[in-house]
Specification:
single chain; two-stranded antiparallel ribbon; 2 domains; mainly alpha
Length: about 210
């Protein structure tokens, strides 16, 4: 059923004006749903939605992509996970990834408040992990750093879509979201720290000074 579902949803995506020109996005959408949908009625409902794709549905695809804030949060955790025996400054992380120090300050502030990091102020200060890497579950990080996981309007209590009372899309995407987070529940930061040697070389962290 999975391969057949993948073909059906990919074909529907190809006919969608907002997705057809984006080959990577088209494949990701199709692969994502074909891996979690098995009921033919669910598949049909999703295909009809994709074929009648409108501007409001563009928000759903944007939501499927993690925000930059979450991306940076995961990068910070990876960097610190590779150097658990020392305090690290935001500048070191910023220089290694080539990303804005101002953005990282906001990320570090939230991660510290959420208990993922421990910060030490003053000369010689810096940040480090507050938990062991195998105790940091990826699904938790994403839930904590994403502003919301409202993937379509009907997920929102203030949604105005007139077909919400009878539409099956909410349940279908809800099931897909649960499967997505369920998969992330099985992975921790420790899983992101391999291959350790290659990651360290790419980040040029061996000779960094905190």
């Amino acid at each position: 059923m999975t391969s057949q579902t993948l073909r059906l949803i990919t074909a529907a995506c190809s006919k969608s004006p907002h997705i057809s020109s984006r080959r990577p996005l088209r494949f990701c959408v199709a692969a994502f749903f074909s891996s979690v949908l098995t009921d033919i009625d669910q598949i049909d409902a999703l295909i009809r939605h994709l074929q009648s794709f409108d501007t409001d549905s563009e928000r759903f695809l944007q939501t499927m992509r993690l925000t930059r804030f979450t991306d940076y949060s995961l990068r910070v955790l990876i960097y610190l996970g590779l150097q658990q025996d020392r305090l690290i400054t935001i500048r070191c992380i910023s220089d290694s990834y080539g990303i804005s120090r101002n953005h990282l300050m906001k990320v570090v502030s939230l991660l510290t408040k959420m208990g993922y990091l421990r910060a030490q102020r003053g000369p010689g200060g810096g940040i480090r992990l507050a938990r062991a890497p195998d105790q940091i579950i990826l699904a938790d990080v994403i839930r904590n750093t994403e502003e919301d996981l409202v993937m379509v309007e009907c997920f929102d209590e203030d949604g105005q879509c007139v077909i919400t009372p009878v539409c099956r899309l909410q349940r279908i995407i809800g099931d897909a979201l649960k499967a997505y987070l369920s998969t992330l529940e099985t992975y921790t930061l420790q899983d992101l720290l391999q291959p350790e040697k290659d990651l360290s070389q790419l980040l040029e962290i061996t000779d960094k000074v905190a």
